[in-house]
Fold this sequence. Notes:
44% helix, 221 residues, two-stranded antiparallel sheet, 6 strands
Amino acid sequence: MGATVKTYALKFEAEPPQDLPALTDTFYAHFDGLVAESFGRLLIAVYADGHENGVMAAKHTAGELDKHLGIKVIRTDRDLVDASEIARRIGRSRENVRQLIHGERHRGAPFPTPAGAPHGKRIWEWPVVNEWLRTQVPGAGDPEYGLSRDEMTIVDSWILRWRSVPLEQHVTMEFRDIVAPGQVFRTSCGSSPEVAQAWVKSWHTTGQPTSRVPLGTASDS
Length: 221
């Protein structure tokens, strides 16, 4: 039996375009998701499947947004929620959510620690809460998967590097990141850079990383 295909709900902040209506039309022609403005920020939510993990899905999606919309993805959006917003999203009362937070309605894993507490009001990243709900209160949250805190940090670092260093340097670093855990780079290439150079050249198409197929049918195989 094959592995279950996960659908990821990925949210990004991007630089606002000059023509938002035109960008919105192009977005819905290529993606399944939502474009919205919030307090001067352009937020983009995309549903993506066919990827091995959330980091790969987010990298692929960021490249697709750049390719089709020509926008600059700045970072992942943490989608911060308080207890009231959690209650609204899962269709339960605030008291019920309070009990979940304090461990009064289950004996499983404790509720996630908050991402912060401005003025004493606790807030969480929705993907983190949603993943907890998936295992502790099945059926209460969204069916799609999000990025964990560690995955959001990894993707944000990748986006910063993607936008801050020359393409060839970025791709070379990406290659090393992929093969470093098994030390394949050192054992395969030895003192010769041919393999790394071939990897870099494979990215030299439009000046930015591009993806292979339209989002929603992507496969990393």
